[in-house]
Amino acid sequence: MKMKKLPNILLTGTPGVGKTTLGKELAQRTGLTYINIGDLAKEGELYDGYDEEYQCPILDEDRVVDELDEKMEEGGMIVDYHGCDLFPERWFHIVFVLRTDNTQLYTRLESRGYNGKKLQDNVQCEIFQTIYEEAMEAYSEEIVHQLPSNTPEDLERNLEQVVQWTEQWTKDHN
Ligand code: DAT
């Protein structure tokens, strides 16, 4: 019996925009598998050195890609990461870049315990739409979509939209 084809979805954007919140709920509603790259790296210690400036380990991108490649080939994955140009383009059928207003993001990151340069740099990353531009360069522009992620209403609207897209994609490919 042939397995049902399911899409791979990338959720990306500056830390704090709501990728994890959306991704986990999306997995519940669609039955797709949620993968948090930060958690995966931590579990497998997929690191290559330590960044003194930001006080965090540096991701070993090659090992992350190797670790996931087989699963991604099977399909049905929701990947959550605050970067997007480390993954093979062929992995994803759609890319969502979540966007949050600066003041809102500042508050969220502050309550996460970010301060000083780390807080400033992340808010600036959002102001300069760094991840959106990274996504537009790394993937075909037609598959890159921005999602506003400021309020619970935004979250619900995004959920409904992505669930609907997933159902349509699955219908079209089976
Ligand atoms: P990320 O995974 O992008 O770092 P998160 O899912 O952990 O972000 O969310 C960061 C915080 O913001 C968390 O406290 C939940 C809250 N949040 C997420 N999406 C939201 C939304 N649409 N409206 C209001 N708050 C939201």
UniProtKB/TrEMBL annotation:
It is found in: Cytoplasm; Nucleus, Nucleoplasm; Nucleus, Cajal body. GO terms for cellular component: Cajal body; cytoplasm. ATP binds at G16, G18, K19, T20, T21, R112. It catalyses: ATP + H2O = ADP + phosphate + H(+); AMP + ATP = 2 ADP. One of its GO terms (molecular function) is ATP hydrolysis activity. The keyword Hydrolase does not apply. One of its GO terms (biological process) is ribosomal small subunit biogenesis. Gene3D superfamilies: P-loop containing nucleotide triphosphate hydrolases (3.40.50.300). Pfam families: AAA_18. It is an enzyme of class 2 (transferase). Residues 36-59 are annotated as: NMPbind. Its EC number is 2.7.4.3. Belongs to the adenylate kinase family. AK6 subfamily. HAMAP family: Adenylate_kinase_AK6 (MF_00039). Monomer and homodimer. Interacts with small ribosomal subunit protein uS11. Not a structural component of 43S pre-ribosomes, but transiently interacts with them by binding to uS11. Interacts with COIL (via C-terminus). This is Adenylate kinase isoenzyme 6. It comes from Cynoglossus semilaevis.
